[in-house]
Write a structure and sequence with these properties.
One of its GO terms (biological process) is antigen processing and presentation of peptide antigen via MHC class I. The structure is a single chain. The chain has three domains: 192 residues, MHC class I-like antigen recognition-like (Murine Class I Major Histocompatibility Complex, H2-DB, Chain A, domain 1); 90 residues, Sandwich (Immunoglobulin-like), CATH 2.60.40.10; 43 residues, no CATH class. 35% of the residues lie in helices and 30% in strands. The chain is built from five helices and 17 strands. An eight-stranded antiparallel β-sheet has the order 4-3-2-1-5-6-7-8, with helices on both faces. The termini are far apart.
Length: 350
Amino acid sequence: MAALFVLVAVLALAEANPGSHRMRYFYTAVSEPGPGLPEFGTVGYVDDQLFVHYDSEIKKTLPRVDWMKEGPEYWDRETQKFQGWQERFRVDLGTLRGRYNQTGGFHTIQVMYGCELGKDNSIRGYEQYAYDGGDFISYDLSRQTWVAVPAEAQITQRKWNADRALLQQRRDYYEGICIQWLQKYLQYRKEALQSKPPMAQVSDRSSRDGLATLSCRVHGFYPKDVTVVWLKNGEPQTQETSRSGVVPSGDGTYQTWATIEIDPSSNHNYTCHVEHVSLGADLRVAWDKKPESNLMLIVGIVIAVVLVLVAAGAAVFFCRRQGAGYKAASTRDSSNSSGSNHGSDPCVKA
C-alpha cells in the first residue's frame, strides 16, 4: 500500500522539460480502505508543487498553497467533481475484478492526467489508467484515440473510441481548458511569489580526519533557477563545491544546499556566493570562526566562575564544620576551666 503513494510522489516530482510548465492530477481508489488509507483520494500539482487535495475521509477539496484566489463556488464544484469520480471508481473496481476473474482482495485503480505547456507554446496532454499497479489504458492526444495495454482493457478501448463525443471532449480539455487553468494558476503563483529573494545560512561540522565541512543552505527563493558556489579568498571554488538539487520548500519557494571541505586550521576566508534573478546584487555570506572562538571563551569563563563558586562554597562549609567542632570542644573545656576561652575562630578572624 505504501508503494502506491511512493509512486504518486515520484511521478509528481519528476522533472518537466526545461522551460515548460505542467498541471497534473493523481487519483487513487482502493477496494479495501482502512485507517490512513481512504477509499478515494486525489492530489493536484502545478509543476512540482502540491496545490490541491481531496479524499473520501475529509469529504471536501482543500487548497494546499496560499496563492489560490478561487472562491467558495470553485471549491464546491471541485468537491462535487471528485465525489463523482469516487462513485465511478467504486463501480469500476467491481467491473475490473470481474474481467480479471477476481472474487475479492485488495485492488487499486490509479489515474494520472494533465497537460504541459512548452517553452515554445507547444501543448501536450496525457491521461493514463492503471489497475493493481499495471498499465491499463491511456489516451493519445496526437492521434486522439485510446490505447489498451492488457487484453482486459480492450473492451474499454472499443467503447471509448466509439464515443466520438468523448474523444472530442478529451481533445477540447487538453488543448484548451486544461492549458487555460494551468496559465491561470501560474499567474496566481507569479503574483504571489514574484519577489522572493533567497536567504542563506552558513554552518560547519567537523569530520574525523581533521577536516571541516562548510554548508550553505539557500532557501525561500522564487523562481527556481539559482547559482550557489563557495568562494575561497574571493575566488570561486567551482570544482570543490558540492551542490544538491533545487527542491520545493512546500510554500511555493525553493531551497538548495552547497558544501565544501576545508582545513579549519588554515587562514583562508570562505564565503557562500548566491546569484538569483530577484537580487539587485549577489548575496554573500561569510564563514566566520570568531563565533566559535567567542563561544569557547564564554564556556571557559563560565567554567572558571563555577569552579570559584564551588571552591568558595567548600571553604565556607569547611569553616562551619571547623567552627562547630571548636565550639563543642570549648563548651566541654569550659566546664573544667571556669569559663576561660583560650581560642578564637580562625574563620571569622582576619
